[in-house]
Amino acid sequence: MKIAISGSNGLVGSHLCDYLQAELGAEILKITRERLYGDAKSLATLLNGANVIIHLSGASILSRWTKRRKKILRESRVETTKNLCKAVALLENKPKQFICTSAAGIYNCRDQHSEESIAYSYDFLGRICIEWEQAAMEMQKLEVATTIFRLGVVLSEQGGIVQKSLPFFKLGIGGRLGSGKQMLPFIHIDDLMKAYGFVIKAKSEGIYNLVAPESINNGDFTKLMAKTVKRPAFCHVPTFILRILLGEASTVLLNGQTVLPNRLKKEGFEYKYLTLDEALRALI
């Protein structure tokens, strides 16, 4: 099996290359930035012979959103997806499956969301996710089974929220962000890897919420991080400070969604880490 992966040097991508080689014996074709943003014909040449394409590319969202930065955030997700569709359209032997990343941020912060929910958020990130998924679903017109993973916060010791916040918690200066009531849908990196393998083996298509079954908020995360490292966590970063530092991008930290992984549970996926407590103990 040949699997082409964009964003292969990122947190998820680097883990995924190793996992798919070890678990499925897959040959990995790394889609470079130059190919992904470049001419569709050149990209098609690289993709020729791939059985599966996994699209992980996307610029980091946690930075001040200038007009230029917003353009980069959108293009790295939406336009690259469109370019992959153009490239696949040129192939005589098309891949069997396309797995595109999206995010739990597509949902609003008020309701509880299974995969059937259409109660979307229409802030900047929500609109990007909607466009991103619409671009990905064009692959269906090429008769390629299309799967969309709406990711929660990925927990890993090599990057993301755990790695960034751990030094502060070890010093006893960790704390909640804003009210701490914003929901924090999460998934351990090992379970995320298993989910990719699960969907590829089953040749599944459609939308999956890639989160753990437990619903927790930022305050819960703060308490469990402090408990795990055996340090107090009395500090608090007020909402107005985050808005001063990050502007509109502060919504990434201050908004959260209640997300349910109904499809994974219904289809018999077995989590290794069902709760945040289990996930943090394994990572720290």
Summarize the structure.
This protein is α/β, with parallel strands linked by helices and 284 residues long.
What is the succession of H and E elements?
EHEHHEHEEHEEHEEHEHEHHEHH
- Structural classification: alpha/beta
- Report how far apart the termini are: 35 Å
Net shape: globular
> What's the story with the biggest beta sheet?
6 strands, parallel
Word description of this protein:
By secondary structure, the chain is an alpha/beta fold. The chain has helices spanning 11-24, 33-37, 40-47, 67-89, 124-137, 160-170, 189-202, 218-229, 239-246, 251-254, 262-266, 276-283, and strands at residues 2-6, 27-31, 52-55, 97-103, 112-113, 145-151, 153-155, 175-177, 186-188, 206-210, 235-237, 258-259. It has a 6-stranded parallel beta sheet, with helices on both faces. Strands 5-12 form a two-stranded parallel ribbon. A two-stranded parallel sheet has the order 7-9. Helix 1 (11-24) crosses helix 7 (189-202), helix 4 (67-89) runs parallel beside helix 5 (124-137) and helix 8 (218-229) crosses helix 12 (276-283). The longest helix has 23 residues, at 67-89.
Structural descriptors:
alpha/beta; single chain; 284 residues; globular
